[in-house]
Structures are given as structure tokens and as C-alpha cells.
Amino acid sequence: MSFTPVSLDEWERSNHFQYYRNILKCGYSVTVALDVTAFHRHVQREAIRFFPAFVYCVSRQIQEMREFRMGTDKDGNPGFYDCLHPNYTIFHEDDHTFSDLWTEYTPDFAAFYYRMTEDMQKYGSRKGVKIKPQQPKNFYCISCVPWLDFTGYSAYTQSGEPMLFPIITYGKITEKDGKETVPFCVNISHAAADGYHTSQFISGLQEKLNTFSGTVQ
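User: That's the sequence. What structure does it adopt?
Assistant: C-alpha cells below.
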């Protein structure tokens, strides 16, 4: 794990960070309908599981945007991790609870796919909130609500202070006139990213879904 601090005297978003981190502790939520038509057809043809492939695409887009890899050091100074690893949820059909675990990100799709599916197999029957030990500090959260086609979603903490890392939730695949979409929500601190950055993040992710060609053979 590598963390690079930024100079508050030189960083272009220094004033924004300090304002939204210390004065108006503001976060925001953006929900869009992602087109997964081409992506879903590809994973079906290749007999690839949708969830780990989708998590890979989201993770890959996060690595390309430092605003979505933000954190602070032990003294609270802002900076950027070189990589964020996905922390995701799995659902237990028997008692309708969930657990979360994490998988180390790698840019090689097949390697990541095998890592994540192996983690899901190894830890999938364990109960509790945190089921895989040694979760790194440099992570982001992603979960799926496959039963619901929603139009808005927000995540809150008791303190009301939004997280610098993204919290991502997506929902049910819905088909209409041959087009498949999923609701996709990003929650993030305004100190980390502005609307422009989130727009660029979503646009880049949509392009990755449109052109995804990963295989595991």
C-alpha cells in the first residue's frame, strides 16, 4: 500500500477540501441508470459471473481517478492511495443476513476474477459482518440490492461525517425494449470529489461496461 500526501499550499482543491472537511461536512449521492446490455451479454456468452466482473470494472475505474482514492494519514493530512481494493457484501439465503469481505485488486481481469470468486467460495458460508481478516485501510465499499430497481439511495453514518472513499450500491437488472439497465449510486464526501469528478467517474465506467471483453480461459 502506497499513500502520497498532498501539499495544501499547491493542491488545486485545497480550499474545497478544507471547507467540506472542516466547516460544512457535506457529502452527496448520485444515482444513475447504467446500461449493462453489452456487458451482460458478454459475461453470459463467456459463462462469467456478473457480480465479480462488475466489481472489477468499478474497481478499474476507481484506479484511474485519484479523487476516488483519497484518504488521510495518521495526522489527518489528505492524500491519495495508489490503489483501492473492493470491500463487498454477500447475501445469506438461509437467514437473510449479509456479510462483507474484501479482495485484493489487480488490473489483470482473470487474476482478479479468480481471487474474488475464491474469496466468495472460501468465506461465503461464514456469518458476521466482517468475515475476512486483515482488511486494508485502502478500500472502498460496493454492494448490490438485486431485488430493487431504485431511483435514489443514500448512506449515512452516526456522526454525519461522509466518507472520503466511495460507497457504491447498485440494484436490479431491468430490461425494456431490448436495453438492460441497473440503478447505480455513488455516495462520497464533497471534500474528496465534486460533481465533475463523479460525472467523469460514471462516464468512464459506462465506457468500460460497453467495451468489456474480459475472459477467464
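The beta strands are 3-5, 27-35, 70-72, 78-81, 85-91, 98-102, 139-145, 167-171, 174-176, 179-189.
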